[in-house]
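Collaboration report, partner site 2.

Our partner group contributed sequences for two proteins of shared interest, and the home lab folded both. The records are reproduced in the order in which they were received, starting with the first partner submission.
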Amino acid sequence: MFSTKKPVWENPEKSAGSKSHRRIGGQNCYEAIGPAYEVFLEIGPRIKELLDAYNDELGCGEQMQHSIAFYMFMIGSELAKSQPTLIFASRSKRQRTMAQALVKENIESGYLVGVPMIWQFGWAIWTLCDKGSH
């Protein structure tokens, strides 16, 4: 289950690269490098496989199906408080929200187990705002 306790990522300085000009949810955004990026390389293909498997369901009810992309950044009010965060991007808020819920459900059910840090650090999963802020 996801904890309401704010996740803490050990030594975020080792996982945060260049600071982006973007702010997400009012937080600073840093390139994911090092240990956080290694986790993303491990789970990224499984997330893509999952989204591809549910592609029809994710697009159901949409007049036009939009693609969904996902990224990982280190996000926090300051570098020392940043944590790895999955970002889902799509022109469709509904598809972003469904993709986020699908990944969360599959983390909880065990599909994405094998990366202990997902459980240990809770993984914040956010979506971009409606206008796709860049």
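Second partner submission, folded after the first:
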Amino acid sequence: MILLLLKNINTNTANGPDNIGNIFLKETRQSLLIPLHYIFNYSLIHMKYPKQWKITNWTPLHKKDSIYKRENYRPISLCNNLGKLLDKIVFQTLYHFLESNNLLNIIMALKGNLVVNIICLCYYIIFMKI
């Protein structure tokens, strides 16, 4: 999954705070596969998300009208590319699990904290191998 995500990574996006560009990740994907696999597995098994990946750069982006009014801007965040990669892996794995176990429609019909609790339980089942 890591190799496929790196192969299809969007190279037209800006670097995050770590300054690791998607072009670099795409071009060196074969060499990065084993180290990233280890880091991602460690993160998931120990339920620890690297602090450096939580850092984002926020930039105001002008939407419309006057550039002198604050409400005419929206924030965009530049996240670390490795953090986004791990997020995609978790999302795709969780989505596939929910879909293949016919839980996706049930969860979409629920509201509030129950949804969060069910998704957390599924995450635990998938990655902790209960």
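Feedback sent to the partner group on the second submission included the following. The chain has one domain: 2-128. The mean pLDDT is 85.
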